[in-house]
Amino acid sequence: MKKNLLLILPMLLTVVLVNAQVELTSYRGAFAPAPTRMWTESWTNWDPQNAVYPASNVNVTGVISGNVTWTSNNVYLLQGLVYVDSLATLTIQPGTIIKGDDATAFSSLVVQRGGKLIAEGTPCQPIVFTTEAVAGSRAKGQWGGVILLGRAKHNLGTQNAIEGIAQPNARVFHGGNDDDDNSGVLKYVRIEYGGYVFAPNNEINGLTLGSVGRGTTIDYVQVSFANDDAFEWFGGTVNCKHLVAYRNLDDDFDTDNGFSGTVQFGLSVKDPAIADAPAVSTSEGFESDNEASGATRTLLPKTSASFYNITQIGAFRCASNTAGTGVQPTADGFRRGARYRRGTDLKIYNSIFMNNWRGVLINDATALANFDEDSAAFRNNIIAGDFTSTWTAPYNASKSLAFEDVSTRSKLGGAFLATYEIDSLHTCSLLTNAWSFTNPDYRPNTAGDGSVLTNGTSLNAGVDLTPGFLVGANLFNANETKGIGIYALENGGAPSNGAIVLTIPKLSGYVLTVPGLTLTGTNQSGTDGSNAQGAYTNGSWNFKDDGTNIVATSKPGVVIAKGGFVQLGFNLTRPNTTPAGTNQNLSVTLSGGTDATPLNNGALQAFGTN
Asked: For the chain, what is the domain count?
């Protein structure tokens, strides 16, 4: 990379969820409350130092050509830079162990543009990339890491040498114009003790992604004890889920050069004893740039990745899971939960940032000027921590702050907070067992003091209702009918009350109906049911057709709880008379319910024909 807290009833996403990569949740952060089990169970390892792995018996060097399979009955040793050729596919069986030669610390697996890595483990048989060192003697940076290169867009062009390779060659270039490019599958994979530093600003990360396209699958990947960043994206469009960044040296999620994918469900955990030297870097949860030098902040495509449901735990600790005497890190390079800079349009939603010295910094005038939901965004998140203890040198006898400077606080603390549903600031007692390095539990702690407010004058205490759509496929054949969901989310600081109205203008090319009803100009009671988008609660609403719009109105007594939502079911039909090529936007506007924030009361969903 470049050097230079949770409510008892957490909130729902406030954005319009039309991207199939994003799941609608009823909580913030990476994990649902108990009794739902954490998705980290079985395949992760919180104590890789003491894991016992068999000795390697197959040495791997040079270039892998053709289609090759590595089997779980062998243990493979990467010696130096090992390339998967541009026309080759390397398949790794579940349960296979791959080691990096710690005598050649830059030993890495590099998948070239056009090559594929199919590393698909299982929850019970994850694939493990680790150091050759034996249990008890492992250390960060004993080998390199995993590098995937692709042909998706990068804002510096199509011939970019990936960082971390001391002498760039034709095999390490990435970039192109194919945003659907496929570099393979990483699923149920652990990457441990990697991260080789050739020089400042030129490091191999745990998992490095250069211009990787959205045809690639990355899901359930843990990077632990890397000697630089856990995950770094340079351009590309790849979507990722279930990422774990555990006790790494520098940044956990680093986005650069036009990365525009979607990432949902991520855990970032800092070790109080592991951080980069302040003269080299400040270790962040997120660091994001549009372009590393900062000379040209408007390069396209912009870094505009969207992250949802992240739990980011910094290095500052409470004495326990209840608020108490603060514990300061022993390393001194820690700083922020998230750092926006150099023109980035990074978007972070529905997440928790806790126990950092500084919660968030927007240290770029361009980012500050454009900080809204059409560019950069920090929305519906909680900033939590020990805001009362005084941290000694090198933290300047200061207290932790949610916002690092006046500009960031102004953008995220005042009117912006009310508009974009950051909601409130909290103490650090939010998770069940956040501090354990042997048996952690990162789920919401419903018995804790997470409702304690430290900035009551800036909270959004009112109702903030937001509409949106849930759709499966949005392309219709002639005379085809599909079920869709239209939802109303309560994201404010209190439950809704009063009549809530959803107004949906009728389309000329498609017909919107309510299941079980023949609509007229008079209100009729709906009935509950389900379609492909899940259960809907039409029975608590009245529906009518006023000639121009379909109007749904909540019945008296209906309340959407803080953090709650309702979904209404509709059918949408493309008549035979609608010609091919008819593309229209279905819209919905929400009103009533004593809504406090009318700026986010509309949503659009496009529909088209096959």
From this structure: 2
CATH number reported for the structural domain that contains residue 477 in this entry: 2.60.40.290
Largest CA distance in the chain: 79
Higher-confidence position of 392 and 387: 392
Give yes or no: residues 431 and 576 share one domain: no
pLDDT tens per residue across span 21-66: 688 887 889 998 888 999 999 999 999 999 999 999 999 999 999 9
In whole angstroms, how far apart are CA 354 and each of 317, 386, 425?
10, 9, 10
Q: Are 232 and 238 in contact (CB under 8 A)?
A: no
Domain-embedded: residue 403: yes
Could you identify the residue written with the tokens 């040498």? 161
Residues 400 and 474 in one domain: no
User: Do 276 and 383 lie in a common domain?
Assistant: yes
Lowest mean pLDDT among 113-117, 494-498, 506-510: 494-498
Confidence of residue 14 (pLDDT cuts 50, 70, 90): very low
Judged against a pLDDT cut of 90, whether residue 184 lies above it is answered with yes
> Do 170 and 111 share a structural domain?
yes
Buried/exposed 407-431: b ≥16 CB within 10 Å, e otherwise: bbbebbbeebbbbbbbbbbbbbbbb
Domain end among 458, 490, 505:
458
CA atoms within a 13 Å half-sphere pointing along the CA-CB vector of 423? 34
Structural domain includes residue 37: no
Whether residue 72 has pLDDT greater than 80: yes
Of 408, 427, 458, which closes a domain? 458
Q: Which residue has the tokens 């390095």?
A: 437
Q: How confident is the model at residue 318 (pLDDT cuts 50, 70, 90)?
A: confident
Instruction: DSSP for 401-460, please give it.
Output: EEESSHHHHHHHHSHHHHHHT---EE-STTEEE-S-SSS-EEEE-TTS-TT--S-GGG--
Same domain, 330 and 404: yes
SS3 312: strand
Q: What pTM does this model have? A: 0.75
Domain that holds residue 367: 48-458
